[in-house]
Structures are given as C-alpha cells and as structure tokens.
Amino acid sequence: AEECVSDTYLRAWSAMPPHRPAMLAVFLGRITRNLALNRLRSAAAQKRGGGGAEAVFEELQHIV
C-alpha cells in the first residue's frame, strides 16, 4: 500500500498541470486507479507467461 501511495505522488508530481486541478482528490484518485489497474494487468501477464521473453533475452546475452 505504501508503494502505491509513493507511486501515486510521483506520478502526480510529473503529471500536475501548471494550475491546480479543480478537484485534486479526483485527480489523485484517477492516478491511483490507473496505477492499480496497471499492476493487475502486469501480474496477470506474468501468470500467463509474460516473463518468458526476459528469459530468452538473458539466454541470448550469455550466448553472445
């Protein structure tokens, strides 16, 4: 949970428009929601074997 909060603040800092958003809580909530969905998608991809490409790249590096 703390990591999610840190990621949210970091993303908000880099995405903050020049003027303060009218609804800051909604702005932060949307960032948090998107980060959580990205984590879920990443975890689901790993379960489906999404990490296989990394193993192939590591093996190629050892060969070369």
How is this structure best described in words?
By secondary structure, this protein is an all-alpha fold. The chain has one domain (2-63). It has helices spanning 2-15, 24-47, 52-63. Helix 1 (2-15) packs across helix 2 (24-47). The protein is elongated, with a radius of gyration of 17 Å.
Report the sheet-strand fraction: under 5%
Helix content: over 70%
**N-to-C SSE string, H for helix and E for strand:** HHH
Q: Report the structural category.
A: mainly alpha
Total domain count? 1
Number of strands: 0
Unreliable residue stretches: none
Largest sheet geometry: none
Name the shape in a single word: elongated
> pLDDT average, as an integer?
83
Radius of gyration: 17 Å
Distance between the termini: 41 Å
Q: Helix count? A: 3
Explain the layout of strands and helices:
Blueprint: H1 2-15, H2 24-47, H3 52-63
Helix pairs in contact: 1-2
Could you list some keywords that capture this structure?
64 residues, mainly alpha, 0% strand
A few lines on this structure:
The protein is mainly α and 64 residues long. It has 3 helices and no strands.
